[in-house]
């Protein structure tokens, strides 16, 4: 009897909390409809952001890895890039079901995640973003995309895909440091390569530039969603100093903050669509960023390598035949997407 009443009370509390949060979300949507947050798409893209961490290049290239299924089934990689020199990894491919090119970047695989996070406190805004007066970014984040094997390989693969599929949409994603790289990539595609339909969606990314840079990115890549899980520490870094709005690191919009509400066994995750400032004080900034475990799992999907602190990779000799390496030993596996389209066409013809 007592037990039953207590349960009922828990439910009542939960639902009133839900009502409050739901109301807020609706109002935000009415005031400012763009960019549209699509939860289904978030759950698909987080799987790509997770798969790019895999170390077995053969399984990744053939899309048969343990994380290469579920909502990403049928994905075809055009180019898989491993920058051994800087311990970075990314891929470009075509997802027929999304009718889009998907580009994903891996987060840091440095020796210790703790050290990487501690270093984030001290990153300076030390580089002028080219072509944009007053936009400042951190040189290291910028270079990881702009000054490694990744950029030329990504651009090359996008070009190949567009020759074949026309001007289809491009979705760029990544987790943590990979989210930072995804942001620079999306902006590069929009500003320098005439890509028109770009969706940028990142998970647990750090701040990468000042407020001028944030407005620049929002202007050129309006469909941008930056997902933050609960108390994830990384999106709180490098720190935001509200007393120096022009000088401090500032996130771009639009944050979607995931947090749990409920009591005991009745826990429900709210996905709160935040305001257009990028630094909505009622979203993740309303709590302390003090969790590493919240950083490593989004939507119940693991976002870390199969082993830490290694730039290890595994590959069989057949896969190697698709590869080329540069002077620094970096590896690019690529495949002409035309072959798979031919296969598709043949199948259609037979049917
Ligand atoms: C959300 O994204 C999924 C996957 O791309 C798509 O099928 C669905 O139509 C989208 N929903 C809306 C409301 O746009
Ligand atoms: C790009 O990388 C090279 C070698 O890794 C380095 O010497 C050069 O200073 C870098 N340039 C920038 C702008 O970071």
Automatic annotation (TrEMBL):
Residues 102-240 form the Fungal lipase-type domain. Residues 1-23 form the signal peptide. Keywords: Signal. It comes from Protea cynaroides. InterPro entries: AB_hydrolase_fold (IPR029058), Fungal_lipase-type (IPR002921), Sec_MonoDiacylglyc_Lipase (IPR051218). The keyword ATP-binding does not apply. The keyword Lipid biosynthesis does not apply. This is Fungal lipase-type domain-containing protein. PANTHER family: ALPHA/BETA-HYDROLASES SUPERFAMILY PROTEIN (PTHR45856), FUNGAL LIPASE-LIKE DOMAIN-CONTAINING PROTEIN (PTHR45856:SF11). GO terms for biological process: lipid metabolic process. Coiled coil: none annotated.
């Amino acid at each position: 009897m007592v037990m039953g009443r207590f349960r009922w009370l828990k439910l009542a509390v939960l639902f009133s909390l839900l009502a409050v949060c739901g109301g807020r979300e609706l109002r935000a949507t009415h005031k400012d409809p763009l960019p549209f947050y699509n939860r289904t798409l978030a759950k698909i893209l987080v799987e790509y952001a997770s798969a790019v961490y895999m170390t077995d290049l053969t399984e990744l290239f053939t899309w048969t890895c343990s994380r290469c299924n579920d909502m990403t089934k049928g994905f075809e990689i055009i180019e898989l890039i491993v920058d051994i020199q800087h311990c970075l990894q990314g891929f470009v491919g075509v997802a027929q079901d999304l009718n889009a090119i998907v580009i994903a970047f891996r987060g840091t695989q440095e020796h210790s995640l703790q050290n990487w996070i501690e270093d984030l406190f001290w990153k300076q805004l030390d580089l002028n973003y080219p072509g944009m007066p007053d936009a400042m970014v951190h040189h290291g984040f910028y270079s990881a995309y702009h000054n490694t094997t990744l950029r030329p390989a990504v651009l090359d693969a996008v070009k190949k895909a567009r020759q074949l599929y026309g001007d289809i949409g491009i979705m760029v994603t990544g987790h943590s440091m990979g989210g930072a790289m995804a942001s620079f990539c999306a902006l590069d595609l929009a500003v320098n390569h005439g890509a028109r339909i770009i969706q940028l969606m990142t998970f647990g990314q750090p701040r990468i530039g000042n407020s001028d840079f944030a407005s620049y990115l929002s202007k050129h890549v309006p469909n941008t969603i930056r997902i933050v899980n609960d108390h994830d520490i990384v999106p709180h870094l490098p720190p935001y100093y509200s007393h120096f709005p022009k000088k401090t690191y500032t996130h771009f919009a639009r944050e979607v903050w995931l947090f749990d509400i409920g009591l005991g066994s009745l826990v429900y995750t709210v996905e709160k669509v935040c305001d257009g400032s990028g630094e909505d004080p009622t979203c993740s900034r309303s709590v302390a960023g003090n969790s590493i475990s919240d950083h490593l799992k989004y939507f119940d999907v693991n976002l870390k390598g199969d082993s830490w602190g290694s730039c290890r990779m595994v590959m069989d000799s057949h896969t190697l035949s698709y590869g080329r390496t540069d002077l620094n030993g970096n590896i690019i596996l690529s495949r002409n997407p035309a072959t798979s389209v031919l296969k598709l066409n043949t199948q259609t013809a037979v049917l």
